[in-house]
Every structure is written in structure tokens, then in C-alpha cells.
Specification:
The complex is a heterotrimer of chains A (291), B (314) and C (252).
Chain A lengths: L1 H32 L6 H17 L4 H24 L7 H22 L16 E3 L2 E3 L1 H23 L1 H11 L1 H6 L4 H27 L5 H16 L4 H21 L5 H15 L14
Antiparallel strand pairs in A: 1-2
Helix pairs in contact in A: 1-5, 1-6, 1-8, 1-9, 1-10, 2-3, 2-4, 2-8, 2-9, 3-8, 5-6, 5-8, 6-8, 9-10, 9-11, 10-11
Chain B lengths: L4 H15 L8 H25 L7 H17 L5 H23 L4 H21 L1 H4 L5 E2 L3 E3 L2 E3 L2 H23 L2 H11 L1 H5 L5 H27 L1 E2 L6 H14 L4 H17 L7 H15 L4 H14 L2
Helix pairs in contact in B: 1-7, 2-7, 2-10, 2-11, 2-12, 3-4, 3-5, 3-10, 4-10, 8-10, 11-12, 11-13
Chain C lengths: L3 E10 L2 E11 L4 E5 L6 H8 L7 E6 L2 E2 L5 H6 L2 E3 L12 H8 L8 H6 L2 H21 L14 H14 L4 E5 L7 H16 L3 E5 L3 H7 L2 E6 L2 E6 L1 H6 L1 H6 L5
Parallel strand pairs in C: 3-8, 3-9, 6-7, 7-8
Antiparallel strand pairs in C: 1-2, 1-4, 4-5, 9-10
Classes of the chains: A mainly alpha (291), B mainly alpha (314), C alpha/beta (252).
Chain lengths: 291, 314, 252
Amino acid sequence: MFAEFLQYVFAGLTSGAIYALAGLGFAIIYNASHVINFAQGEFIMIGGMSTATMVAAGIPLPVAAAAAVLVTMLVGVALEKFAVEPAKGADVTAIIIITIGASIFLRGAAQIIWDKEFHALPAFSGETPIAVLGATLMPQSVWVVGVSMVVIAALWWFFNRTLFGKAMLATSFNRLAAQLVGIGVKKVLMVSFALSAMLGAVGGIVMTPITFTNYEAGIMLGLKGFSAAVLGGLGNGLGAIVGGLVVGIAEALASGYLSSAYKDAIAFVIILFVLFFMPSGLFGKKGTDRV
Amino acid sequence: MMLSPRTGGLAALAFVVSLAPAFFPNAYFYDVAVNALFNAVVCVGLNLLIGYGGQISLGHAGFFALGAYGSAILTGTHGMSPLAALAVSAAAVGVLAFVVGRPILRLKGHYLAMATLGIGIIIHIVLKTESQITGGPDGIGVDPFTVLGLAVSGDKAWYWVGAGLLLFSVWTSLNLIDSPMGRALRAVHGSEVGAEVVGVDTGRYKVLVFTLSAVFASVVGSLFAHKNGFITPDIGSFFRSIELVTMVVLGGMASTFGAVVGAVILTLLPQMLASFEDYEAMVLGGIMMGTMIFMPKGLLPSLRAAFKRRRAAP
Amino acid sequence: MTLLRVENLSKEFGGVHAIEDLSFAINPGTIHSIIGPNGAGKTTLFNLITGVYTPTSGRILLDDHDIAGKKPFELARLGMSRTFQNLQVFFNMTALENVMVGHHLHLDRRFFPSLFRLPAIVRRDAEARAHCLELMEFVGIGRYADADANSMPYGALKRLEIARALAARPRLLLLDEPAAGLNATESREIDEVIKKVAATGVTVVLVEHDMKMVMGISDHILALDYGRKLAEGTPSEVRANDDVVAAYLGAH
């Protein structure tokens, strides 16, 4: 009984870590620009697909992974430069459509550059399951959670200990003030997209050995990452991480105990629940409009 | 006597719609045209919500699908008459939109977008999963549409049904926009608090236009199901919802005729790109981004503004 | 009999006491001004009275009925209307349409007749159109009738908001800094409009910084500072009040 529960929790933590990375990506971009980047999921997909095809072509995994992350970061920056920046000042509907259009565009490009097939990566350190308290843990899951933790720690260090990172935080609190003290807001925007792309790509790479990947993999992952971000409080990094884990575990438990067919719906039920009853999420702040 | 723009526009639309079949290269084109007409009607309703009401819905295909499946199931499994099934489905969708609309439309911007997205996706998942009732991902067959024993069959017949429906919806939509109710709705878009202080119950109006546009979608969905004879859950997918929003946005928000134009263009586009099918997604994505960056007001309003500038120049 | 009465009104925003224990009364048919330095709580008070904010404590009574917490559109039905310091014009419509929306409560808003453009709707709309045009003339912007709101100059827009508020046929009209951003000539013109409005029997309450205007047209003045009542009375009484002079008047 407990073993089964633990099994679901392990599964939930694994997918939850990916959602957390995606959610964090949403949070970083939202903080820098108040844009919800619907193409976040595509970053995950591009990371996974690039790595998979490069490895299949014979390139060693670490090199392929690094190259894939770089490629994804370039895509992220291109997205910011060519789609988001030109639309500055447009209303919310317009921006939403732009990033959705970008995600459709990237998906279409992926279809052509690669193909519609599923691609796999070999597990990083083999497939021998580890027994933990009666449940089995796949080594790759440990990689997923471990790598995520490392990346998140690195980000924490970046935002809180480096000058540019702090500048980015400042911009998220008050853009105008940040500009007035000389912080290059455009650069902040660019870096935020690059970081989010990196987060997505890393998530995609560690996840592919478990779930495989294809050109459509980004859609659901992106939306669930968004669910994580909203649950945690849009713009709150810690919230996105907690949110991701909650969504992942909730999904796994519901899928195991209730109905596996409705697994995908859980994240969206969570979105609706949060938006109806606590729109500022678990950690977000409430604001008032000035009239 | 000068025709008002609305009467003139309606007349032009009726003219175009009546003459278009003469230019169809082959019978297959009727099928495409019917889809274009149906999309146009959904977009006219959606435009009331997005363009005039200033809200957004990323889940509208869900309402379309509910109408389609409602009709399919009620006429098939339960032997209801198609007209009754259409009405019952529309009423059910209306109630759903009303109930869900109240809490959702209190949200704004991104939050509203995500909530409507969530609704749409949940509907899609339910339709895919409850295969006992809906036939699951493989879809379900639909009986033909009969009224008083007469069946509407064949794309030609559906073309005229679609044309009539489009003219009717454009006419009622224009009427609504130019009425006190319509102005109140547009005012909500302009400034919610400004509208409130002159007595507009903004919450109620937002829910009303949301419900109305959902009912539009449901009615068209029902007709689509009968016309197609077969439907799958993907008619309610996120991608379909985005397509609909893009049609409205491309043609021009706050422009009923713009919504029609946008729907026609984006329905015909995949046909024209048939040989480039693989590039369809890239083209669609590119259009979405390009329109919003370079022509945020959409095709028709941008053209209109360009004409005004030309005329004003000395 | 007072038209509007405020009793022990308080409003807190997370520790900031925007309005503290405020009480005053407004008699019908008067022009009543609220003055005070920036941050004194004038707009907050307006927002409380017009239902945009809900009080933390205290009562607001219109015709002796407690209206605190009622939504703005409910208050419009009770005869209250207002303009805004930061214009809340409907920039997506023409000037005339803006005013016609103001007339909303007096128009035929039924759904199905609207959908089918029944003659009753068309007729009432035409009458409303004529009436709203008159209102625009009344406030002096008649020539902007068919102009798009987003093409009008600032001064005209301020008057547009007044015309819109008047279209609601209010008994009580609240004007939030009607002269803000206007030059001396435009201020005088707004002055005249306000006097004209009051002459029709509408009770006018305004928030203003322009002391000349305030002293010139008010029947009664309420001075606020830090959310509390500093003084109230006729213009000459308030002008002579030492606290008011110390806190505020000298600056103009």
C-alpha cells in the first residue's frame, strides 16, 4: 500500500521537476516583461529533440546536450528579438497570440527540420531500478531531480549573488526605476529568454530517456509548466518550483488512484481552481488598481 | 440616398455569397466554402466577445465541439430530431457558459486567457476519454440533418444553409453592436469602471456576451456535425481554438465583416497550401505573429485606416 | 434633509489609513468642494462614495440609506454619477457614443429587440442621440459629436466625461479634479459648466486643487489632510481657518 503510494510520488516528483523547470522559465520571463511565453514548452521540446538526433548521429551525450542547450538558448533569444520586442506596448491579447503563434511556428519548424517520429535517448546511467522502501526508482528519475536541483541552485546563486542577476530582480520589481538607474532593460529581457530557454532545454534533455520526445511534446509540458507557475503565483520563482512539484505529484496520485485517462486534465483543473479561488497563487501578492 | 455602411456591407456580403458558387472550380469547393461559412459564423460570435467586449477565449472550440457532440449523440443514440437536438445542445452550452462565465470573467488578461484555455482543454479531454458516450478519439458518426422529413444533404444544400446563417448572424451582430446593449458592451471594453459608474453592470454584460458567443459556436458545431456525418474530438482541440482566435484577430477585432474575412482567409489557406502541407503550421504561426506585430488592429480596420489617411492627404 | 451623509468613515490599505473617522454631510442643490494637499485622501473618498472601494468601517448614507459597499452601477441607479481624475473615457467609441452610454439606464436595453433592431429600439435610440447631442452642446463640445474619442484634445475629453455623467440624469454629480491639466481659460470654462449644471438642480461635489475655482463657486468646502477632516464651512470660513492656511492654502 505504502509502496504503491511511494511509487506514485516518485513518478510525480520526476515529472514535477520538469514542470518546475518550465514553471520557473515562465516566471523569469514574466518577471522581466509581463509576458506569458506560450512557447516555453517548445524550449523543452527543442532541447530534447536536438540532443536525441545528435546522439543518434554519433555525437557523445555531454557534447550533444551542451550544444542542444546552446541552440535552444539561441532560439529563445531570437524569439525575444523578433517576436516579443517588436510588439512592445501591444495589449495582452496581442502578446498572447504572438507567443502562441511562435510556439506553433516552432512546432512546424521542428516537424520539418526533424520529423514526426518519437525519439529516444539512452538513460544516462543505465536502467537498473533502485529499490527504495518497496518501491522502485529509475536512475534517470534521480538524474531528473538531481539536475533540476543543481540548475535551480545555480539560478538562485545567479539572481542573488551576481550583479546582473540582482539587476534582473530589480527590473522585475520596477521596470522604470531600473531603467533610471542604468540597468539595461533590453538586455535583461534577452537574458531572461535565454535563461528560460536553458531551463526548458535542460528539462527536455533529462526527461527524454523516460518519456521519449517528438515535435508535439512541448504543448502539454508547456501548459503544465504554466499551471505550476500560476499555482505558485505568477512571477514567483520559489512558487513555480513548489507548484511544479505539486502538479506533478497531484497528477501521479490522481492517475494512480482515480483514473489514468484523466491524468492530463489534472493540471488544468488545478489552473481553474487557482484562478477561481486564489488567483495570486500560493506565494503571490494581491494588488489593487488605482483609479 | 447613401446606403449606411451596415446595409451596404450586408448587401455586399449577400452579393458575394450568392455569386461565389459560380466561380467554384469544382464541386469539392463547396465543401471548403461551407467550412469557411461555418467558421465565419463562429468568428462573428467570437468577435463580439474578443473585439467588441475586449475579453478573450482560448477555449471556444470546446463549445463548438459540445454542440457537435450534443447533436450527434442526441440524434443518434436518443433519436431526437436534429432541430431539437441543436436547440437542446445550444441551451446546454449556454447554461455551461453562463455558469462558468461568472467566475471566469472576473479575471483579466492572461488569467482570463488561461482559464478559458483550461475549460477548452478539459472539454477536449472529456470528449476523448468518455468513449462509451462519445466514441472516444476515433470519433462518432452523425445522422443527416432533417427538418420535417426533408433532409439537408450534399454540400450544395449546406452551402445555402451556411450562407443564410452567416447573413443572419452578421445582421443580428451588427444590430446588437449599434444598440444600447452593444454600446454598453463596447464601453466595458473601453473602461470597465467608466461603464460601471453610468450604470452598466459590467459583470453581467461580460457573461452575456460570453454566453452568446458560446451559443453561436454550439449552433454551428451542431450543423457541422450533421454536414460532416462524422466528428472526432479534435474539433474541440486547443489548436482549433487558437485557429478561431487567429481568424478574428487577423480579419480585425471590433469588425464583424473583418471576422468574416479572417475566417474565409484562414479556411482557404490550408487548401491553397495543400502541396505545402508540412509548412502549414509555420505559415499559421507566422501569420499570427506577423499580424499582431505589424497590423495589431487586423486586416479590415488597418485597410480602413489606410484609406482614411490616403483620402485625408492633400 | 441631507442628500449624502458620511459617518465615521475609515479606509485602510494594508496599514495606511487613507481615510480616518471622517464625517460630513452634503445638502441637495449645493456645490460642495473637497480640498486638501496631495495624498489627503480626496480621490479615495470619492472612490468610497462611488462604490469603487469598500469602507473599512463607517457608513455612507444616500437619502438615509446605507450605500457603503454597493457597486458603482447600483449607485448610478440611485442617481449618483461621477467623472475621473485619470480619464476613463471609452476611447474605442465616438464622442457621442460615449455620452449615449452615459444615458444607459434610460435606454431600452432588452436583448432580443436589440438583436433584431425592432422599431422601438431604433426610435428610442434616435431620441437618445438627440438628447446626448444637446448635452454635448451644453458642456460646450457640440462640434465633436461624431469625432472619435481618441482624436479629441484633453480639455474636450474632460468635458466629455461631464456630459457622459450628466446623461445618466444624476441627482448627485461627483467631479474628480475637473480642471486638472487645463489652462486658465479652459478652467474658467469648466467653471461655467459646473455652475450651469448646479443651476439645473444637480448637487455637485468636486475635488479640486484650483483654489480660485473652489473659492469662487462653492457653497460649502470640506478640507482634508492625512485622511482626516481639517475644517469645513463656507469659503470665507475655510479661507480664514488657520489650520487650513498652514496645511495648504499658502502653497497656491
